[in-house]
Amino acid sequence: DAPKVPDSRGDSDGPRRGSLSDRHCAAINNVQGDLGELGCHLHRPRVPPATSTPSCCQQHSEEVCESCVVKTTLTAENAVEANKLSNNYKFGFKKWKSHVTARPWEDRSEIVKELYSDLNIVRGSGGSTLTCGNVLYLLLFGWWLSLLYVLVAAVMFITIMGAPYGELCWDLAGYFLWPFGKVIQKVEVPKSHQACEAGVGESSALLGGPTALRWRPRCWVGTGYWHRASTAVWLCLGYPVLALAHGLVCVTAWLLIVLIPVAKLSARAASRVLLLPPERVLIRCLRMTEAPLEGEVILCCYRAANPYYYKYAVDGINVFAVNLLPLVLVTLVLGYVDSPNHLTGSAVKFTLALLSIMPLSYYIGMAIASISAQSNFAVGAVVNATFGSITELTFYITALIKGSREGNRCYAEVVKSALTGTLVGCVLFVPGLCMVIGGIRHQEQRFNSRSAGVSSALLFLSVGGVFAPTLFSKVYGKLVCGECHNVTQNPLGHYLCHNCHFDLMDNNGTLYYSHVQPLVYTVSILLPAAYLIGLFFTLKTHTHIYDIHISDCHMPGHHHSAVVHWSRWRALVILLLSTLCMSACADLATEHISPILTNSTISQYFIGVTVLAMVPELPEIVNGIQFALQNNLSLSIEIGNCIAVQVCMLQIPILVLFTIFYPTNFTLVFSDLHVYASMFSVVLMNYIFMDGKCDYFQGTVLVMVYFILLAVYFFAPSPSGC
Question: Are residue 549 and residue 686 in the same domain, yes or no?
Fold first, then answer.
């Protein structure tokens, strides 16, 4: 307990009140480790309503802190981050795990601090350097990089004038063969050595300096480094080759992510070590009892690999998204320059275009979260509603346009399969996978069943509305079969028919144009209206169902000034550029999907519900897994529910509206398989989420059901028109 401080008002209950307040705030600050990493979420048992007040943590009092315990408490480093965390719990807002502001250095864990540290820190004892990562460095880079330095050293010795650099390269050959536990220093030359030009100073080990390591003319120390003849020889013959080699090592190690320390090592060697005068470079092998020489430490590396570099970020952007960004440029250049497919085929271009959607989805999500966190509620709601589904809509619209131009109905069927696949995957696979992975760390996870119930109700409504025209056509449509055979050879006997479907265009399309199409337009108006009502209900009139409170208790390390990674204007520019690139990649994907649909032996249903549906959602799946690992399953569930609701209430009505202005083959009539799979998934999801708690077994059930549905789609025949 914190010490009891008497109340300055002289109240007899002052000491008790102050102590209780401090105890509650300390409990909030210390529950479940680092609350700042997630923004911290707590689920506390409720106290009687009479003991809580609407305000929370504005001053330290018993009533205030008891109110903190009632609600889910979020803690953040600054106001922008608090706004982002609050938006995560709002219906209709994109759930985003990564920080949109720079975290205070003192709040970072030691593991993360090591990721961002420069390779110039000398530790007293680094342990054994014989590790798997270091051996991997030796096999991938060390041996040939060392051999290259030996060859360059030989060339420098042959030129005679470059002999000092030859000796430096010889020493660096041994260093880069196994750089671990060694240090490269920039030596400050004593003044006595600089008198060599006047003939009064001589170098020796007693006077300091690395004379004992290698021979070098000390009289060059005082002369201009860039005016030496040896420097010109080095920059022409030695440095370009080594810089190119280090650049290759740097790029390769960076792409492997876990070897980013090797990338830092090569980058610093090319930019610092190789551009120093050779007499200023000292290479030593550190020992546990040996103190380093005085001077600037340039390089000191102990480990070549670090598995935690998946957390590494550049200007707030995860390293995976950074590494995949060049893939977008390669895809666009290869797709539009090599139109006749001379360099690569359609399958390669389709795969590249699909993979390019993943980093673009990440940048769009990061931009939306940044803008929403720095703006008011209205701007955030508009941005999320406008760009929240832009990834999927760009692909669907370009596919429908291509199908309309070619007169191919298969594209419309693929779009319907992708819509159904997104719905089923976000209802079953996303929450199920989060439950399984989160259940490995937490035996039982709880979530806000009331907020999940709102999303579930909207999901029931949206699924019923989307499939209403399909059910209507089943009741009033005319069943038409392509081929029938009499099984019993009796005219009144049984017939076996193939390729049967409900024809809506009978009698010049009277049923479709007079009944089905008006129903489709009515549903397309009612679903967005229901979405707006859901937003108004959860964000204005019934905000208390989310039980969210941004704590204002004074905590060490928090309440720093916000240093945003992306300003609003920068985020807006990135959002627009990412959207344009997304449109281009979607155009390339639809352009080169036709050979895959026609030549593949796999059902087009399966291609739509798996690849086209789930690849754009991979960033959302990663966010959901991260939330589940930190025991915040509420957000993991909301991620899947919100995407499914947006598919039915926003994406499908937008596609229907698009067909009004640009006629396509898209009609809001789905196959029986899509209807049954979607409805069964929604019912099962609501059954699992009724009690507000779950474990890895329930998550396994959802994932297994999802894979069973995928097997059904895999063995299903291709849709009509394909």
Answer: yes
